[in-house]
C-alpha cells in the first residue's frame, strides 16, 4: 500500500515541477531534472524493496530516455 501512495504523490510532484521548470527554463534543464528525480525514486524503491513501483518507474525512465534521444537527434 505504501508503494502506491508514494507513486501517486511522487508522480505529480515530479511531473508538475518539471513542467514549471520547462516553462521558465530550457528543455535540456528540465530533461536533466526529470531524469535525476526518476533515478532517485528508483533508488529509493530498491532500498525499500517496493518492486512493483520500481518496475513502473524503470519503464517510465526507459521510455523517457528513448523519447529524449529521439527528439535530440
TrEMBL record:
This is 8709_t:CDS:1.
Amino acid at each position: 500500500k505504501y508503494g502506491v501512495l508514494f507513486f501517486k504523490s511522487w508522480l505529480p510532484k515530479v511531473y508538475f515541477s518539471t513542467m514549471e521548470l520547462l516553462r521558465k527554463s530550457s528543455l535540456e534543464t528540465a530533461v536533466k531534472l526529470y531524469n535525476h528525480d526518476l533515478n532517485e525514486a528508483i533508488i529509493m524503491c530498491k532500498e525499500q524493496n517496493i518492486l512493483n513501483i520500481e518496475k513502473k518507474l524503470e519503464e517510465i525512465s526507459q521510455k523517457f530516455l528513448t523519447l529524449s534521444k529521439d527528439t535530440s537527434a
